[in-house]
Structure formats: C-alpha cells, structure tokens
C-alpha cells in the first residue's frame, strides 16, 4: 500500500520505541487503515537506531495446529520435518539451533524459554528487540497439548518481556477488535498494555492527498463524499482512469458483499437471524444506541467479522466500516 502522511502516528510510535519496554502495545483499527504500512515505515525510520525488529506477519502462514504455530514462532517457513532435516531456524533477529528446535518439537524444551534466551542475547549486544505480531488472532484457536490456549501463554510471555524484564518491545496489530477484549479478559493484561488507534484519514487530510496525487478538487470531493479517507480505496481510485467510475465499482462490490452476507445469515439461522442482523444495522442507520454488552453483541460480532461494521473496544463504539458499507445498508434495508 502507498504511504501518505501519518506524521502524528509515526512520531507516537518512534517515541514509544525510545522508552524502556514496559507494556504491550495494541495497534488496532479498521481493515485497510494502513497499520502494517505505517509500522514498516517506522521500522525504516529507525533502521540506523539500535533496534532489531522481529516481525511475524501471520497472514503469510497456514496455521492449523500447535506444531504449525510453534514453527512460526521459531521462524520456520517450511514444514517441520523439512526444517529439522536441513536448516537452523532463522528468526531474522535470532537463530535457533537445529538441535534445540528438535527438542521443542518433541516437547522436551519450552519454545518460550528458547525465545526469551535468544532475545536476551540481542539485548546484550546493545540492541532492543521489537517483537511485532500482525493479525495475531490467527493463533486464537490453537491449544498447547489440547489444554491451554497458545495465545494466552503467548501474552503471558509478552508481559514477562515488557512489564517484568523490560527486555523487548511487543507490538500487536489486529483488525479483529473483539479479539482484543477476549485476550484482555483471559490473559493477565491489566496494567500491562496500551492501545493505539490507527484510523482512516480524516476528510481534510484525504482531500489534500487526493489533490496532491493529481485529482481535481471536484473529483477529490466526490471521492471523499463517497468513500472517505480509506487508504486502500484511495490508492485504487488514484490508479484508475476515471475516479467516478472507480468509486461506482467499489460500491457495487460492497453492496454485493453485504447482499451475500445477508444470504449467509439466512442459510445459517433462517429469516430470524437475517432479520436480526438487519435490525442491528437499522439501529445504527437511525442513530439508536446498541446494546453492545447485551442482546446485540452476537449480531454486531457477525457484522464486524464480515467487515461491515468496525468496533472500537476502547471507546465501546460501533460504526460502519466504510461509507460504502453504510450506503449499501441504506439501499438494501432502507
């Protein structure tokens, strides 16, 4: 994704990394708000500083069982048998020796003990490790030995690395904001974590960017009126032959996705479930208050998972993911 602006966010993150590690930082926001692009830019800004980034982009991996997750944690990209036969495990920050990796997979050695020790070596070389997990919710259905959730153990490890030992910065990025609530209640995260919202561009910033990229003021205002400051959509429109046509195509896609979602709700729970999710959307359209901690919660969650709504767990607010989703809802349910 193209990088624009974000001076405020870049400054915040650079200040954060310059302080002693003391808390897990959750960077959250709606889908395609530019969270990963922002952090890559910050990492580039800090390339001459004494930081070593250990980046786990969990969208790259098929994680179906504990062995897959442990292989990813130890830096393996291939299958476990292939890895153990041919390579040491290269973490970019650390390298886990093949013999130790084999012990981990045989459950003779705790992977978090290995990671903690290797991070300490980085610190002893005068560098601060920065552990980044992108879309960490990919781990949420993985269990250690069929009992404890891997993600709970992982966050306890994060607390040890930050709040307890001040050894490494830990930054967790996710667009699954219900997951943040789950982790907070199931892990010992009270007084150990901070939260930073990376949202879409405001209208004024989006207007400036679009005009700087060559759109006329009239075209730019039309784009903002319809899609707002969604970076991914702005990039698609800037690269198109006709901004208006590009906006129309994006809207058709969002309308089709919402219609398909309604169909899935009918297949899953019949007309009763379909009507309920429509009722939740109607409440938002009419400006009514949702019972996010009550009867509306399960239906809001389905709409968030379908990327129709965005839920801010810190503010306790729900809104449409984009203006195109709101427009589609108005057309399809009135």
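^ Assign residues to that structure.
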């Amino acid at each position: 994704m193209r990088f624009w602006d974000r001076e405020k966010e870049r400054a915040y993150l650079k200040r954060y990394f310059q302080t002693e590690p003391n808390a897990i930082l959750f960077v959250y926001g709606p889908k395609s708000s530019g969270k990963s692009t922002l952090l890559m830019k910050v990492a580039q800004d800090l390339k001459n500083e004494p930081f070593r980034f250990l980046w786990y982009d969990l969208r790259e991996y098929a994680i179906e069982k504990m062995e897959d997750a442990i292989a990813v944690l130890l830096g393996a990209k291939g299958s476990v048998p292939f890895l153990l036969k041919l390579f040491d495990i290269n973490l970019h920050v650390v390298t886990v020796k093949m013999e130790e990796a084999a012990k981990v997979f045989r459950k003779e050695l705790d992977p978090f003990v290995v990671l903690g020790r290797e991070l300490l070596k980085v610190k002893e070389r005068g560098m601060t490790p920065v552990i980044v997990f992108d879309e960490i919710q990919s781990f949420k259905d993985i269990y250690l030995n069929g009992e404890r959730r891997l993600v709970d153990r992982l966050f306890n490890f994060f607390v040890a690395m930050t709040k307890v030992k001040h050894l490494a910065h830990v930054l967790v990025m996710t667009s699954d904001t219900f997951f943040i609530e789950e982790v907070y209640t199931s892990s010992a995260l009270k007084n150990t974590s901070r939260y930073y919202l990376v949202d879409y561009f405001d209208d004024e910033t989006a207007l400036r960017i679009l005009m700087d990229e060559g759109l006329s003021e009239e075209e730019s205002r039309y784009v903002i009126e319809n899609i707002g400051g969604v970076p991914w959509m702005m990039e698609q429109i800037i690269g198109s032959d006709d901004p208006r046509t590009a906006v129309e195509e994006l809207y058709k896609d969002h309308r089709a996705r919402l219609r398909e979602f309604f169909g899935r709700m009918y297949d899953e729970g019949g007309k009763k479930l379909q009507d309920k999710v429509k009722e939740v959307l109607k409440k938002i359209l009419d400006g009514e208050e949702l019972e996010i901690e009550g009867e509306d919660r399960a239906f809001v969650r389905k709409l968030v998972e379908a990327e129709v709504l965005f839920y801010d767990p810190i503010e306790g607010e729900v809104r449409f993911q984009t203006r195109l989703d709101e427009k589609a809802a108005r057309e399809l349910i009135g």
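The first strand starts at residue 24 and ends at 28.
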